[in-house]
User: What shape does this take?
Amino acid sequence: MVDSAMATEAMAGESGGPPCPFCGRVAVVHANALAFSCWDIAPVSPGHLLIVTARHVPDFLAITPQEFGAIWELAQKGKELIQRRYHPDGYNLGVNVGQAAGQTVAHAHLHLMPRYRGDVDHPRGGVRAVLPNRRAEPG
Assistant: This one.
């Protein structure tokens, strides 16, 4: 679970920016010693879950192997919960590292996004569709 010392330390954003939304009061869905999950406040699809490091670290690629294991454990628990509640047809898992990649919250987290048949016309290519000219064509 997020301890108060970590939360206090990370409350001020990088360079005096806004406070980290993950280090404040968050409605936790699941937690272990190194990570927690919460529902995305602007979900891409019903059941969109975030799995967040308890330690405030901006770069997902800088987390420890232990933190990665803790995140993966919660991703599996989250998938079970989403499956029971929402019955999706598939999932995308995503991580944004750096502003150029679309990262808007400087705290390492994994997106677990349920997908549903028909939510886009042509889902082929999945996360490759982030760059429209790289998207796989249907067929």
Remarks:
- Residues 1-14 have pLDDT under 50 and may be disordered.
